[in-house]
Amino acid sequence: MSENAVPSLSQYFGESDNKQDQLDFTQEITEASSRINNLKLDDNQLNSNKDEPEVCRIFAESPPQPKDPTAAFFDLIGNNKTTGTNGIISDLGISTNNDDGYSPRVAVGTEADRRRDAWIPNERTRQCLIACATAAPGSYFPDWENLTMPGVLLEEELGDAVGEAVSMCLGEAEAAQRRVLNASDVTQDERGLRELVQAGAYRSAINLTAKLLTIYGQGRGRAGHPSKHSPHSLQLWFTRIALLIKTKAFNIASAEAEPFRQLDKPDLFYQFYPEMYGGRPGSIASFSFRLLLAELPMHCGKPKDSLAKLFSMLATIKQMLENLRQGLCEDGNPMKIRGGQLAMELLGQLCNRDGAPRHSLLSALGRLHLQLGDVAGAEVCFNEAADAKGGPPGVRELVDRGLISVARSSFDDAYISFQQASMLEPSNIMILNNMGVCLLYGGHLKEAIAVLESAIASNPVHALHESLLLNLCTLYDMESSKGRMKKFALLRQISRYHADAPTTILEKLYG
What we know:
The protein is mostly helical. It has a domain at 71-102 and 338-510: Serine Threonine Protein Phosphatase 5, Tetratricopeptide repeat, CATH 1.25.40. Helix content is 56%, strand content 1%. The chain has helices spanning 9-13, 20-38, 71-74, 111-117, 123-134, 161-170, 172-176, 190-198, 202-214, 231-246, 250-257, 274-277, 287-299, 303-325, 339-351, 358-371, 375-389, 395-407, 411-424, 429-441, 445-458, 460-463, 466-479, 484-497, 503-510; strands at 81-83, 89-91. A two-stranded antiparallel sheet has the order 1-2. A hairpin with a 5-residue loop joins strand 1 and strand 2. Helix 18 (395-407) packs antiparallel against helix 19 (411-424) and helix 21 packs antiparallel against helix 23 (466-479). The longest helix is centred in the middle third of the chain and has 23 residues, at 303-325. The radius of gyration is 28 Å and the shape is extended. This is Trafficking protein particle complex subunit 12. It comes from Molorchus minor. Residues 1-21 are annotated as: Disordered.
């Protein structure tokens, strides 16, 4: 299965017939884990409707000759692209979504990685990981009892149980008419595995997991042999054991899951593989895998064992939450300062320097607060910036007002602020883009299109910006299914004024 999504058993197969006690504890554990992922250093995170389109509210656009030498840095936020639900690439200047957008392919060491992978190892595992980290490369050899050595135990592939029943009860002729998807009918990778699961061919999917695990040295006959683990290999095991449970093969699922125990062995943590993951901390195993293994004994007639494992998980999660409340990482280590915090600290130091453009720095600090979701903190900074500048509000102050209104979903008020700023600086493409966004969220689609089209018509060299183009293409799609010719017109403009363009824009124009 894909590393991006870590499915729970219910996502694949619907609700199971668990007893109420196990359901209650499972729900409490899942909710506690969710609180860990959502816990921030500030409590002013904004929630946005994930069904609404994300559009480019702010983007980098350096004017040729800014009147204020600090404008190129402080007024125009750099690109921070995310893909919205409607396929829009967003260069967000503020954060209105608590979703961290985790992907295992993002750079190692990000905040999202830390939250997702966090787990407190037991003392024996912790000592082993410390020894591994401090030893010279290639010189550390753990005891075998500290290794997880799983392997596929089923010697033969599972057959078509339904087909066998049809043949036995209804005859060979009826069985010959049966058409099902087999492991050999799909690609031999996670895409094929997903296709089998979605088609309900669970036994064939189990057969395919055995083939895929062979790649990691964990296939048939490999139980008890050391091998390396990765997020992908553990995701395959999670899927395989979930499928075995779905097909009621509880004894086999229990036997193959036995080497994993409670996923607390040292070789199931990133620190065990410094040559592969550098200094990345945390557990390679997903939370869903932990929960599945804790519930497994219940399916085998051992509900007390399940309760004991669920209580153990709950105790660990509560300790992680307590560590976070004390300003530590989930595992109790001192928390490293995040990039946003470091930027705040540096901006604060710059504000206190003699002769510094205090109003510009305070404005930048306010926008940084917005990017972190702290609207109240941003408003304080913007007010101080306006006081430090004195006089009537300028472009920067009006834009700051508009950003606060956007953060509060007051798009009509935001539009008025951006419109006033545009009157002072008619050629500022960032402001025009934000005006279009406010019109869209205010329910004025045609007016939003008109604003963005007028921006391109008045200043095609600078207005043919990636964010504005992607927004405009998306608005065309929302307006009508016949916007192809309008997109071709944009393509002609790009051909005329630009030597190159990102692939994402070209695909949006002619896709």
